[in-house]
Amino acid sequence: MTHEIAVIPGDGIGQEVTPAAVDVLGELNIDFEFVHAEAGDETKAETGTALPEETAEIAADADATLFGAAGETAADVILPLRSIVGSFANVRPARAYPGLDALQPETDLVFIRENTEGVYSGIEDEITEGVRTLTRVITEDASEKIAEYGFQYAKRNGYDDVTIAHKANVMRETDGLFLDTAERVAEERGAEYDTALMDALAMHLAMTPEEYGVVICPNLAGDMLSDLAAGLVGGLGLLPSANIGEENALFEPVHGSAPDIAGEGVANPSAMILSAAMMLDHLEYPEEAETVRAAVESVLDSGPRTPDLGGSASTEEMTEAVVDEL
Amino acid sequence: MTHEIAVIPGDGIGQEVTPAAVDVLGELNIDFEFVHAEAGDETKAETGTALPEETAEIAADADATLFGAAGETAADVILPLRSIVGSFANVRPARAYPGLDALQPETDLVFIRENTEGVYSGIEDEITEGVRTLTRVITEDASEKIAEYGFQYAKRNGYDDVTIAHKANVMRETDGLFLDTAERVAEERGAEYDTALMDALAMHLAMTPEEYGVVICPNLAGDMLSDLAAGLVGGLGLLPSANIGEENALFEPVHGSAPDIAGEGVANPSAMILSAAMMLDHLEYPEEAETVRAAVESVLDSGPRTPDLGGSASTEEMTEAVVDEL
Ligand SMILES: CC(C)[C@H](C(=O)O)[C@@H](O)C(=O)O
Ligand SMILES: CC(C)[C@H](C(=O)O)[C@@H](O)C(=O)O
């Protein structure tokens, strides 16, 4: 069975780390057909749109998409792409790897971020000059779906601690619905869980991340908390993510296009390769996923590293080392 | 001139740390009249309302209010109180003190949090069963006011780095207005500044807080980022805050009522005493404010400490040590 994979490197280091992940995937004994497509700042400069219709169609038709990064146009590319693949869950693991300098070396978190609504619904208005509103949407359906996904994920991946993040003391009706729904799901499943106000959670994650595992969050809370967790494990260069839909999915590093180092060939390919590993899991190649993860971990532990990790290796050297470990 | 200060200890450790701050203030050569008032969970249990009319009036009539903490009813107490004193700016310093175990010992941040609108406007609706909305409000007036306050604060307190936090790539109209307005204020003042997406900022604050100083934020972003900063300096027990209005103000520790340790007499009084110091600044007693701050710092450095700081002192012992240092 051939898997059609849309490959959208995008801007900046997306152009460097995406081929690295494709190289790693090419070493596995799986029948992939990679279909390349364009998006991002340069595409906008050339074609007038950051996400051309053709790219949207390639992503829609593929079995899964690998996306690198976009620059200024990031929101114009990634938000529509998430919606094209029908993503309802944004899965963001944040793990500290042995051998790397992490602020909190015991961190092993997975954020399960609602990915369709909240402040991302895109409904904004100018009521009168100087007065603008944004309509934050929370539905029972989306809350139920993300909670189901989160508890399932925790069970399947052996996480005992599940935390439901919210700000229902202020957003009483909307986060109230999110919280009540997630608690109902937990109770129906007979699952253990905790709840946490997202402000207090930000503090506790910084201080004692080892006390947390899976964190189920509304959209924007997940955006911030997962970036915070990136800070605890040594930066965005290590964090993969998955955008999971019913029939399609998109995999991308949490990092952006990093214009400061783009073009130098020194971007850390780990987040992108680990995103490809999440894709392997999604396509039901758990062994191959594990092989890729183990290879990355081994290189992070004792192989050549890119400058962001204190090494002097190039993207290519680090990628080759991962391939050698497969 | 007599300063009338409303004193609202509230629930839990609020009952322990608020008297400590009043004791410290009582040692200064300033004519305070303290008017005690009730609010919080216990008040609600007794009177049916968490914030009785009488308490609201006392806070409204006072020159300033000292508030301890509230439990489950926190939002029902603190949000109306902030509005009663006309608070438009929530000022939250987060500093690491020498001699204490901080995750990031170089942290010296001050969050200037917009305190009247954003998701706190309290407009929520049930559109149909299972579909709820919250209207997030951003106005040019409030954005201008908080930006003016923030840049003024930075200048007066010698902070060179000012960062405007936002999520204008997603909340284009609302945070767009916040960001544009704050940038205009900066330019009119000829002030240097940076802007940061609040998710990326969460990561950077965790990794390199020393690169930041004053952070001007929308309401909810300030709520989360300041709690995150608390995690970097060793927890909420050290963080004071001020809610500044045109003619009135309220001072409170960032911590809550801490029911787990309430009643044991071991609550750390630092955040509350430092909040009283912020009140002294506000009432234009800068020397006395500095004296109180120096006394707290000296005790934190080498005096008796409460258990949350690794010591075994009681609230009273730590407070007495601060008084001795005055
Ligand atoms: C680029 C932006 C729209 C996006 C988001 O807010 O989701 C990014 O921050 C992310 O986390 O992937
Ligand atoms: C209790 C709650 C309403 C409050 C807030 O969200 O402002 C608290 O978290 C704070 O930061 O003072």
UniProtKB/TrEMBL annotation, chains A, B:
The keyword Ubl conjugation does not apply. Residues 301-326 are annotated as: Disordered. SMART domains: Iso_dh. The keyword Cell division does not apply. Residues 4-322 form the Isopropylmalate dehydrogenase-like domain. Keywords: Oxidoreductase. One of its GO terms (biological process) is tricarboxylic acid cycle. Residues 317-326 have a biased composition (Acidic residues). InterPro entries: IsoPropMal-DH-like_dom. It holds the Pfam family Iso_dh. It comes from the Archaea. One of its GO terms (molecular function) is isocitrate dehydrogenase (NAD+) activity. Belongs to the isocitrate and isopropylmalate dehydrogenases family. This is NAD-dependent isocitrate dehydrogenase.
